[in-house]
Amino acid sequence: MNLRDIINFVRLRLKDSRGKDINRLWKDWELAVYATDAEAELARRLYLLNDSDTIGYITIDGTSGQISTVTVSGVAVIGSPVAYAVSAENTAAVLAAAITAYASAPKYRARAVGNRVFVRAVPKTGYPASGYVLAATTTTLTRQQRH
């Protein structure tokens, strides 16, 4: 489905498909702007596009245990272990908060989406010289990571 198909579909739903563009309630350019904005917002909310500062993500799976360490290129990004907190989703939220609150150099921030924790570099706080390596160690909890 391309932009023209989307505009035609919306026109049918709005019952605004008759006549020339100048006589219609919604102009083609207006519908194109709304469709483009919606696509960008969806991609942002679902993390479909990575910003240049995105390191990767950690997926939390399991029912007990703790995340002992999280490092980015050898730099610790949590100060103390994060224990399992009721569910994988809650544990991810606690881990994201721990990463964001920790004063590492360079600085990193994180956001939990479901049971995933997306780790990002804070711009202008320094970057590793040879790329990023995201690593996490756990006790009992299983984890997957992507970088």
Provide tags for this entry.
147 residues; alpha+beta; 4-stranded antiparallel sheet; 3 helices
In words, what does this structure look like?
The chain has 147 residues and is α+β, with helices and mostly antiparallel strands. Helix content is 30%, strand content 29%. It is built from three helices and eight strands; from the N terminus they run H-H-E-E-E-E-H-E-E-E-E. It has helices at residues 3-14, 28-45, 88-101, and strands at 54-61, 66-72, 75-76, 82-83, 108-113, 116-121, 134-139, 142-146. The strands form two sheets. The chain has a four-stranded antiparallel β-sheet with strand order 5-6-1-8. Strands 2, 3, 4 and 7 form a four-stranded antiparallel β-sheet that branches. Strand 5 (108-113) and strand 6 form a beta hairpin. Helix 1 crosses helix 2. The longest helix has 18 residues, at 28-45. It is elongated and about 65 Å long.
